[in-house]
């Protein structure tokens, strides 16, 4: 198949969909790759490296399959034509108008964030690969903005105790944030509404934040908390948050506003110079005082809410994303001929497909 790699046009987006390492592998399998001039510039990948890998430098929009990072702009949609296939982060839950426009163009679309979270699809799981980048960078941002050291320091002038870092939300980003903060010498603690994640937190050498609420029900399932218990849980979390130097929040609910975990009361009670790094800014933020995309100071606490953190580490973020795309492309290709032949009886293909036959799925 012919695969096109456009230059990303979204503001601040420095990643590129395919890197030379992956291009070389795709070309070796008989695919033709067309890369727009300057597509890898933001990730510091020159056109010459793509050419060495076997790609052609030219117009990618006429290719059978167009692979992107960010959703296409209106101008880019105008360059797509009926019968093409588009693959990328398409924000299917938050961008219905964009998907409708893709459907109107007669394009089949696969959203990387819609790939089922099953073991067979791990190599295609771009949400996880990019969340690893976000979690790593969030720990660094906490250290950068904090007025205190992360590690314990023993000096002739006395001993400095380690910073206390709390991570709320124990998914891929949260686990990476815990691991990175611990490597930097911080005293780390994790919390999630799912008690089964406690083992993952402790496996990284971090402590589990026990709020003292028991929600065990019959048959090993958690029971629903009463309104009074929910209020007690939030107050317990608020009280606990006040004792940390850095709080990193990563809690997201697909298609819904981010849950509010850090209240204004918690921010006001934190020590001056403390930091909150809110990774949920794109859906409103986990902190009540977050301003998405901004760094603000409230009650002498710095609240950092970066958007699109993976784009700030474009080299490795692009490399990971390109491998995810490679795995999906290979699944969509016929094993014998290499031609595009998606098997819509495959749960990965069906799950990832968000536009087909002129309809949003």
From TrEMBL:
<comment type="function">
    <text>The transhydrogenation between NADH and NADP is coupled to respiration and ATP hydrolysis and functions as a proton pump across the membrane.</text>
</comment>
<keyword id="KW-1278">Translocase</keyword>
<protein>
    <recommendedName>
        <fullName>NAD(P) transhydrogenase subunit alpha part 1</fullName>
        <ecNumber>7.1.1.1</ecNumber>
    </recommendedName>
</protein>
<dbReference type="InterPro" id="IPR036291">
    <property type="entry name" value="NAD(P)-bd_dom_sf"/>
</dbReference>
<dbReference type="GO" id="GO:0005886">
    <property type="term" value="C:plasma membrane"/>
</dbReference>
<dbReference type="GO" id="GO:0016491">
    <property type="term" value="F:oxidoreductase activity"/>
</dbReference>
<keyword id="KW-0520">NAD</keyword>
<keyword id="KW-0560">Oxidoreductase</keyword>
<dbReference type="InterPro" id="IPR007698">
    <property type="entry name" value="AlaDH/PNT_NAD(H)-bd"/>
</dbReference>
<keyword id="KW-0521">NADP</keyword>
<dbReference type="GO" id="GO:0008750">
    <property type="term" value="F:proton-translocating NAD(P)+ transhydrogenase activity"/>
</dbReference>
<dbReference type="Pfam" id="PF05222">
    <property type="entry name" value="AlaDh_PNT_N"/>
</dbReference>
<keyword id="KW-0547">Nucleotide-binding</keyword>
<dbReference type="GO" id="GO:0050661">
    <property type="term" value="F:NADP binding"/>
</dbReference>
<dbReference type="GO" id="GO:0006740">
    <property type="term" value="P:NADPH regeneration"/>
</dbReference>
<feature type="domain" description="Alanine dehydrogenase/pyridine nucleotide transhydrogenase N-terminal">
    <location>
        <begin position="4"/>
        <end position="134"/>
    </location>
</feature>
<feature type="domain" description="Alanine dehydrogenase/pyridine nucleotide transhydrogenase NAD(H)-binding">
    <location>
        <begin position="143"/>
        <end position="305"/>
    </location>
</feature>
<dbReference type="Pfam" id="PF01262">
    <property type="entry name" value="AlaDh_PNT_C"/>
</dbReference>
<dbReference type="InterPro" id="IPR007886">
    <property type="entry name" value="AlaDH/PNT_N"/>
</dbReference>
């Amino acid at each position: 198949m012919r695969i096109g790699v456009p230059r990303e046009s979204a503001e601040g987006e420095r990643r590129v969909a395919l890197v030379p390492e992956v291009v070389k592998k795709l070309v070796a399998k008989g695919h033709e790759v067309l890369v727009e001039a300057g597509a890898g510039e933001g990730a510091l990948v020159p056109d010459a490296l793509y050419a060495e890998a076997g790609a052609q430098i030219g117009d990618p929009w006429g290719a059978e399959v167009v692979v992107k990072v960010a959703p296409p702009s209106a101008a880019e949609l105008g360059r797509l034509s009926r019968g093409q296939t588009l693959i990328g982060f398409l924000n299917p839950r938050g961008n219905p108008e964009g998907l409708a426009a893709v459907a109107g163009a007669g394009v089949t679309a696969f959203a990387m964030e819609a790939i089922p979270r099953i073991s067979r699809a791990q190599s295609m799981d771009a949400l996880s690969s990019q969340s690893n980048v976000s979690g790593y960078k969030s720990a660094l941002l906490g250290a950068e903005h904090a007025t205190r050291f992360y590690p314990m320091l023993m000096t002739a002038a006395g001993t400095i105790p380690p910073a206390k870092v709390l991570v709320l939300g124990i998914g891929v980003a949260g686990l990476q944030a815990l691991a990175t903060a611990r490597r930097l010498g911080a005293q780390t603690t994790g919390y999630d509404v799912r008690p089964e994640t406690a083992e993952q937190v402790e496996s990284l050498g971090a402590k589990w934040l026990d709020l003292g609420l028991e929600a065990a029900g019959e048959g090993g399932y958690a029971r629903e908390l009463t309104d009074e218990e929910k209020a007690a849980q939030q107050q317990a979390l608020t009280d606990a948050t006040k004792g940390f130097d850095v709080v990193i929040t990563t809690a997201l609910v697909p298609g819904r506003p981010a849950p509010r975990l850090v209240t204004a009361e918690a921010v006001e009670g934190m020590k001056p110079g403390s930091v909150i790094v809110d990774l949920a800014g794109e859906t409103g933020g986990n902190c009540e005082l977050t301003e998405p995309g901004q760094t603000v100071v409230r009650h002498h606490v710095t609240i950092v809410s970066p958007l699109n953190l993976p784009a700030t580490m474009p080299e490795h973020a692009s490399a990971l994303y390109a491998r995810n795309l490679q795995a999906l492309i290979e699944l969509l290709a016929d094993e014998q001929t290499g031609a595009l032949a998606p098997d819509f009886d495959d749960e990965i293909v069906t799950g990832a497909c968000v536009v087909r036959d002129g309809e949003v799925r």
